[in-house]
What does this fold into?
Amino acid sequence: MKQELAISIKDVCFSYSGPRVLEHINLEVYRGEFLGLVGPNGGGKSTLLKIILGLLRPLSGQVSVLGLSPKRGRAAIGYVPQHTVFPEDFPISVEAAVLQGRLGKTRLIGGYTREDRAFARRAMEQVEILELSACPLAALSGGQCQRVLIARALAMEPEILILDEPTAHVDLRLEENFFHLLRQLNQQMTIIVVSHDVGFISHYVNRVACLNQTLICHETAAVSGEIIKQLYGASVRMIDHTH
Ligand SMILES: Nc1ncnc2c1ncn2[C@@H]1O[C@H](COP(=O)(O)OP(=O)(O)OP(=O)(O)O)[C@@H](O)[C@H]1O
It folds into this structure.
Protein backbone atom coordinates (compact mmCIF):
# COMPACT_ATOMS: atom_id res chain seq x y z
CA MET A 1 0.00 0.00 0.00
CA LYS A 2 1.32 3.45 -0.89
CA GLN A 3 1.91 5.56 2.20
CA GLU A 4 0.48 9.06 2.19
CA LEU A 5 2.86 11.96 2.70
CA ALA A 6 2.20 14.40 5.53
CA ILE A 7 5.25 16.61 4.89
CA SER A 8 7.60 16.73 1.93
CA ILE A 9 10.86 18.72 1.97
CA LYS A 10 12.91 18.70 -1.22
CA ASP A 11 16.41 20.11 -1.50
CA VAL A 12 15.77 22.99 0.90
CA CYS A 13 18.53 25.53 1.66
CA PHE A 14 18.20 28.42 4.09
CA SER A 15 20.24 31.25 5.60
CA TYR A 16 19.12 34.17 7.76
CA SER A 17 21.52 36.73 6.32
CA GLY A 18 24.93 35.20 6.89
CA PRO A 19 26.13 31.63 6.38
CA ARG A 20 23.87 28.74 5.40
CA VAL A 21 21.92 27.30 8.29
CA LEU A 22 20.32 24.48 6.25
CA GLU A 23 22.02 22.78 3.27
CA HIS A 24 20.04 20.70 0.75
CA ILE A 25 17.59 19.18 3.21
CA ASN A 26 15.43 16.30 1.99
CA LEU A 27 12.82 14.75 4.24
CA GLU A 28 9.54 12.90 3.75
CA VAL A 29 7.30 12.38 6.74
CA TYR A 30 4.42 9.95 6.26
CA ARG A 31 0.98 10.17 7.82
CA GLY A 32 0.93 8.37 11.13
CA GLU A 33 4.69 8.60 11.64
CA PHE A 34 6.29 9.61 14.93
CA LEU A 35 9.55 11.29 13.96
CA GLY A 36 12.24 12.49 16.35
CA LEU A 37 14.37 15.44 15.24
CA VAL A 38 17.71 15.71 17.02
CA GLY A 39 20.94 17.67 16.61
CA PRO A 40 23.31 19.97 18.43
CA ASN A 41 22.49 23.53 19.53
CA GLY A 42 22.31 25.78 16.50
CA GLY A 43 21.98 22.76 14.16
CA GLY A 44 18.90 24.28 12.52
CA LYS A 45 16.02 22.32 14.10
CA SER A 46 13.82 25.30 15.01
CA THR A 47 14.60 26.89 11.65
CA LEU A 48 13.41 23.77 9.81
CA LEU A 49 10.21 23.71 11.88
CA LYS A 50 9.57 27.37 11.04
CA ILE A 51 9.96 26.56 7.35
CA ILE A 52 7.46 23.69 7.67
CA LEU A 53 5.07 26.10 9.40
CA GLY A 54 5.47 28.66 6.63
CA LEU A 55 6.96 31.25 9.01
CA LEU A 56 10.25 31.32 7.06
CA ARG A 57 10.72 30.92 3.30
CA PRO A 58 13.55 28.70 2.08
CA LEU A 59 16.21 30.22 -0.18
CA SER A 60 15.65 27.30 -2.54
CA GLY A 61 13.83 23.98 -2.64
CA GLN A 62 10.20 22.94 -2.11
CA VAL A 63 8.12 22.22 0.97
CA SER A 64 4.58 20.87 1.07
CA VAL A 65 2.31 20.06 3.99
CA LEU A 66 -0.52 17.63 3.24
CA GLY A 67 -0.04 18.51 -0.43
CA LEU A 68 -0.41 22.26 0.22
CA SER A 69 2.03 25.15 0.58
CA PRO A 70 3.28 25.49 4.19
CA LYS A 71 1.19 28.66 4.71
CA ARG A 72 -2.02 26.89 3.66
CA GLY A 73 -1.10 23.63 5.34
CA ARG A 74 -0.41 25.38 8.65
CA ALA A 75 -4.08 25.16 9.62
CA ALA A 76 -3.61 21.40 9.99
CA ILE A 77 -0.56 21.69 12.27
CA GLY A 78 -0.68 21.95 16.03
CA TYR A 79 2.56 23.59 17.11
CA VAL A 80 3.95 23.51 20.63
CA PRO A 81 6.79 26.05 20.76
CA GLN A 82 10.04 25.89 22.70
CA HIS A 83 10.54 27.66 26.05
CA THR A 84 7.10 29.02 26.68
CA VAL A 85 7.12 30.60 30.10
CA PHE A 86 4.00 32.26 31.46
CA PRO A 87 4.66 35.38 33.56
CA GLU A 88 3.86 34.96 37.28
CA ASP A 89 0.83 37.22 37.15
CA PHE A 90 -0.49 36.10 33.74
CA PRO A 91 -4.22 36.54 34.38
CA ILE A 92 -5.61 33.66 32.35
CA SER A 93 -7.08 30.28 33.25
CA VAL A 94 -6.12 26.91 31.80
CA GLU A 95 -9.43 26.71 29.92
CA ALA A 96 -8.94 30.17 28.39
CA ALA A 97 -5.43 29.21 27.25
CA VAL A 98 -6.67 25.98 25.66
CA LEU A 99 -9.56 27.80 23.97
CA GLN A 100 -6.99 29.99 22.19
CA GLY A 101 -6.30 26.90 20.08
CA ARG A 102 -9.75 27.48 18.50
CA LEU A 103 -8.94 31.02 17.35
CA GLY A 104 -8.16 30.10 13.75
CA LYS A 105 -11.16 27.76 13.55
CA THR A 106 -14.05 29.59 15.19
CA ARG A 107 -16.25 32.52 14.14
CA LEU A 108 -14.60 35.94 14.20
CA ILE A 109 -17.31 37.78 16.13
CA GLY A 110 -19.39 36.69 19.09
CA GLY A 111 -16.88 34.73 21.14
CA TYR A 112 -16.32 31.00 21.45
CA THR A 113 -19.14 28.65 20.52
CA ARG A 114 -20.43 25.70 22.51
CA GLU A 115 -18.59 23.51 20.00
CA ASP A 116 -15.30 25.33 20.71
CA ARG A 117 -15.75 24.71 24.43
CA ALA A 118 -16.46 21.03 23.73
CA PHE A 119 -13.22 20.76 21.71
CA ALA A 120 -11.26 22.48 24.47
CA ARG A 121 -12.80 20.17 27.08
CA ARG A 122 -11.94 17.08 25.06
CA ALA A 123 -8.35 18.31 24.59
CA MET A 124 -8.01 18.89 28.35
CA GLU A 125 -9.40 15.39 28.98
CA GLN A 126 -6.91 13.87 26.54
CA VAL A 127 -3.93 15.33 28.38
CA GLU A 128 -5.54 14.81 31.82
CA ILE A 129 -5.77 18.42 32.96
CA LEU A 130 -9.55 18.83 33.02
CA GLU A 131 -9.57 19.20 36.80
CA LEU A 132 -7.21 22.18 36.38
CA SER A 133 -9.42 24.01 33.88
CA ALA A 134 -10.25 26.92 36.22
CA CYS A 135 -6.70 27.27 37.61
CA PRO A 136 -4.62 30.31 36.68
CA LEU A 137 -1.64 29.37 34.50
CA ALA A 138 0.69 30.95 37.03
CA ALA A 139 -0.26 28.26 39.57
CA LEU A 140 0.87 25.33 37.40
CA SER A 141 4.05 23.24 37.49
CA GLY A 142 6.34 23.00 34.44
CA GLY A 143 4.90 19.62 33.44
CA GLN A 144 1.31 20.86 33.80
CA CYS A 145 2.15 23.91 31.64
CA GLN A 146 3.49 21.61 28.92
CA ARG A 147 0.20 19.73 28.97
CA VAL A 148 -1.75 22.99 28.64
CA LEU A 149 0.31 23.87 25.56
CA ILE A 150 -0.38 20.48 24.03
CA ALA A 151 -4.09 20.77 24.83
CA ARG A 152 -4.09 24.19 23.11
CA ALA A 153 -2.52 22.58 20.03
CA LEU A 154 -4.99 19.65 20.15
CA ALA A 155 -8.01 21.95 20.45
CA MET A 156 -7.42 23.04 16.87
CA GLU A 157 -7.95 19.43 15.70
CA PRO A 158 -4.52 19.07 14.07
CA GLU A 159 -3.56 16.33 11.65
CA ILE A 160 0.10 16.95 12.46
CA LEU A 161 1.51 17.79 15.90
CA ILE A 162 4.95 19.43 16.08
CA LEU A 163 6.67 19.92 19.41
CA ASP A 164 9.93 21.84 19.84
CA GLU A 165 11.79 20.44 22.87
CA PRO A 166 8.62 19.90 24.87
CA THR A 167 10.31 18.35 27.89
CA ALA A 168 13.24 20.73 28.27
CA HIS A 169 11.99 21.86 31.69
CA VAL A 170 10.45 18.72 33.12
CA ASP A 171 12.01 15.92 35.13
CA LEU A 172 12.62 12.40 33.87
CA ARG A 173 9.45 10.89 35.38
CA LEU A 174 7.28 13.55 33.76
CA GLU A 175 9.24 13.16 30.54
CA GLU A 176 8.31 9.47 30.45
CA ASN A 177 4.63 10.19 31.13
CA PHE A 178 4.76 12.81 28.48
CA PHE A 179 6.14 10.49 25.80
CA HIS A 180 3.54 7.86 26.71
CA LEU A 181 0.94 10.54 26.07
CA LEU A 182 2.52 11.39 22.71
CA ARG A 183 2.50 7.72 21.76
CA GLN A 184 -1.25 7.60 22.43
CA LEU A 185 -1.82 10.78 20.40
CA ASN A 186 0.24 9.26 17.58
CA GLN A 187 -2.61 6.77 17.02
CA GLN A 188 -4.62 9.71 15.66
CA MET A 189 -2.01 12.06 14.20
CA THR A 190 1.47 12.45 12.72
CA ILE A 191 3.99 13.71 15.29
CA ILE A 192 7.37 15.41 14.99
CA VAL A 193 9.22 16.05 18.22
CA VAL A 194 12.52 17.91 18.66
CA SER A 195 14.72 16.60 21.44
CA HIS A 196 18.32 16.63 22.58
CA ASP A 197 18.02 13.17 24.01
CA VAL A 198 18.41 10.58 21.26
CA GLY A 199 18.65 7.60 23.58
CA PHE A 200 15.39 8.47 25.24
CA ILE A 201 13.26 9.36 22.23
CA SER A 202 14.44 6.35 20.24
CA HIS A 203 12.29 4.23 22.60
CA TYR A 204 9.21 6.04 21.36
CA VAL A 205 9.65 7.29 17.78
CA ASN A 206 9.69 5.34 14.48
CA ARG A 207 12.58 7.26 12.99
CA VAL A 208 15.22 9.74 14.07
CA ALA A 209 16.28 12.61 11.80
CA CYS A 210 19.65 14.11 12.77
CA LEU A 211 20.12 17.73 11.76
CA ASN A 212 23.38 19.62 11.84
CA GLN A 213 23.04 21.91 8.84
CA THR A 214 22.57 18.76 6.73
CA LEU A 215 20.10 16.02 7.62
CA ILE A 216 20.40 12.26 7.88
CA CYS A 217 17.55 9.92 8.87
CA HIS A 218 18.01 6.70 10.81
CA GLU A 219 15.56 3.95 11.65
CA THR A 220 15.45 3.97 15.44
CA ALA A 221 17.06 0.55 15.70
CA ALA A 222 20.14 1.85 13.87
CA VAL A 223 20.82 4.79 16.18
CA SER A 224 23.73 4.16 18.48
CA GLY A 225 25.57 6.53 20.78
CA GLU A 226 28.71 6.15 18.69
CA ILE A 227 26.98 7.20 15.45
CA ILE A 228 25.51 10.25 17.10
CA LYS A 229 28.78 11.24 18.75
CA GLN A 230 30.71 10.94 15.50
CA LEU A 231 28.24 12.98 13.52
CA TYR A 232 27.19 15.58 15.99
CA GLY A 233 29.67 15.80 18.82
CA ALA A 234 28.94 15.56 22.50
CA SER A 235 26.12 18.12 22.73
CA VAL A 236 23.45 15.54 21.91
CA ARG A 237 22.56 13.47 24.96
CA MET A 238 22.70 9.72 24.43
CA ILE A 239 21.37 8.35 27.67
CA ASP A 240 19.83 4.92 27.64
CA HIS A 241 16.75 4.90 29.87
CA THR A 242 15.97 1.24 29.24
CA HIS A 243 13.49 -0.05 31.80
N1 LIG B 1 16.37 35.02 13.75
C1 LIG B 1 17.63 34.64 13.49
N2 LIG B 1 18.48 35.49 12.88
C2 LIG B 1 19.76 35.12 12.59
N3 LIG B 1 20.25 33.90 12.88
C3 LIG B 1 19.45 33.02 13.50
C4 LIG B 1 18.10 33.34 13.83
N4 LIG B 1 17.53 32.26 14.44
C5 LIG B 1 18.49 31.31 14.47
N5 LIG B 1 19.63 31.76 13.91
C6 LIG B 1 20.88 30.99 13.74
O1 LIG B 1 20.59 29.86 12.92
C7 LIG B 1 21.27 28.72 13.38
C8 LIG B 1 20.26 27.61 13.65
O2 LIG B 1 19.46 28.00 14.74
P1 LIG B 1 18.21 27.13 15.23
O3 LIG B 1 17.54 27.91 16.33
O4 LIG B 1 17.40 26.72 14.06
O5 LIG B 1 18.96 25.84 15.83
P2 LIG B 1 18.40 24.71 16.79
O6 LIG B 1 18.92 23.42 16.22
O7 LIG B 1 16.93 24.83 16.96
O8 LIG B 1 19.17 25.05 18.13
P3 LIG B 1 18.81 24.74 19.67
O9 LIG B 1 18.98 23.28 19.88
O10 LIG B 1 19.83 25.53 20.41
O11 LIG B 1 17.40 25.22 19.92
C9 LIG B 1 22.07 29.15 14.60
O12 LIG B 1 23.39 29.42 14.18
C10 LIG B 1 21.37 30.42 15.05
O13 LIG B 1 22.29 31.30 15.66
